[in-house]
Amino acid sequence: MSFPEKRLRRLRASSSMRRLVRQISLSPDNFIYPLFVRPGQGLKEPIKSMTDCFGFSPDTIAAEAAEVAALGIPAVLLFGTPKKKDEKGSEAWAEDGAVQRAIRQIKKACPELLVITDVCLCAYTTHGHCGIVKNNQIDNDATCELLAKTALSHAQAGADIVAPSDMMDGRVKFIHEALEENGFHNTAIMAYSAKYASAFYGPFRDVADSAPAFGDRKTYQMDPPNAKQAMMEIEMDIKEGADIVMVKPALCYLDIIRRAKDRFDTPIAAYNVSGEYMMLNSAADAGLLEKEAAMIETLYAIKRAGADIIITYFAKQAAKLLRK
Fold first, then answer.
1. Which tens digit of pLDDT belongs to each residue from 198-242?
2. 3-state secondary structure of 85
3. Secondary structure of 245-303 in HEC code, one letter for each residue
4. What is the rounded CA–CA span in Å between residue 98 and residue 157?
5. What domain range includes position 79?
């Protein structure tokens, strides 16, 4: 019997050989770690719906940010909740809001750590939608004005990157113009460009208390079967001034990440969302898989699909593992 002409197992024969020929690298440099900010003082409260995640007050979040920076993770993404909600979500752009205060605390403690802020109204509104509601419908353009106002308040507090997640048409243009007109020429925009109306957001909505009081978000978030439309959304955001574009969620939309990577030169971010995170944690808790191995395999899949940046609640755990 003749031997195979090519023995591919030679390149898998040892750990050192596998490392030598590895085609995709994974590093803490690739990660963004999400953090939740709440009004108050002295808070570090466990989040029941999300393993190893906490809600911080602005005065305690700097210590967590310092730990993130020490692990070599270059950025955090802040999500906030208000003291009081209203129809317009006015605390979203308040100078003394939890997010604005947290930005100042983090930049004072860790000036080199990039602070990214989620720009949306859903956690701040009484109705839980991402925009202004008129006659039970979202007023797109009126919402864009308030999103720009929110993004500007984050930039004024010291945010390095603002990240609109609302999926309103034209909101990147509104935000870009507001930043430029007010002299924030170096504040970048990371747009949630292809954000799908997904079933995997449940744990996050519990944290942010942001589930819609009526209806759903399918009139503005993307329909899961659509791929070509995602490319249109991404292209529009780039033309309007987005510096980084995002696909959310990651695992059910690996094909969208790949299409975006092949088509656009702009950095591609992917959000490994709360439902994906807890799906793996729950399986590990049930003894159905080995958590660390599954975590790294998942992150490699997202990177292999084409993501330059991965937003993940696993960032700290993965960074520690990758440094071994």
1. 999 989 877 777 777 777 888 899 999 999 999 999 999 999 999
2. coil
3. EEEECCHHHHHHHHHHHHHCCCCEEEEECHHHHHHHHHHHHCCCCCHHHHHHHHHHHHH
4. 11
5. 25-322
| 3, part of any domain | no
Note whether residue 11 is domain-resident: no
How many structural domains compose the chain? 1
Give the active site residue among 85, 88, 107, 248. Answer: 248
- Cα 142 to Cα 119, 146, 168, 176, 268: the distances in Å are 15, 7, 10, 16, 28
One-letter amino acid of 288: L
In whole angstroms, give the CA distance from residue 301 to residue 76. 22
Query: Which residue among the candidates 195, 261, 303, 316 is catalytic per the annotation?
Result: 195
261 among known catalytic residues: no
Dihedral sign computed on CA atoms, order 143, 170, 138, 127 = negative
Q: How far is CA 280 from CA 50, 53, 124, 207, 253, in A?
A: 11, 15, 29, 18, 17
- The answer to the question of residue 14 being in a domain is no
List the one residue out of 308, 301, 302 whose CA is nearest residue 244: 308
**pTM, to two decimals:** 0.95
Tell me the per-residue pLDDT of 54-66, one tens digit each, with 9 for 90 and over: 999 999 999 999 9
195 an active-site residue?
A: yes
Q: Is the peptide bond before 39 cis (omega within 30 degrees of 0)?
A: no
Single-letter amino acid, residue 72: G
- In tens, the pLDDT along 102-147 reads 999 999 999 999 999 999 999 999 888 888 898 888 999 999 999 9
Query: Which runs of consecutive H residues, i.e. helices, occur in the chain?
Result: 15-20, 61-70, 98-109, 140-157, 171-181, 202-208, 228-240, 254-263, 274-285, 291-305, 315-322
- Domain assignment of residue 15, yes or no: no
Instruction: Name the amino acid, one letter, at 285.
Output: D
Instruction: Report the CATH number at residue 309.
Output: 3.20.20.70
Q: How far apart are CA 72 and CA 82, in angstroms?
A: 30
Query: HSE-up of 53 (CA within 13 Å, CB side)?
Result: 26
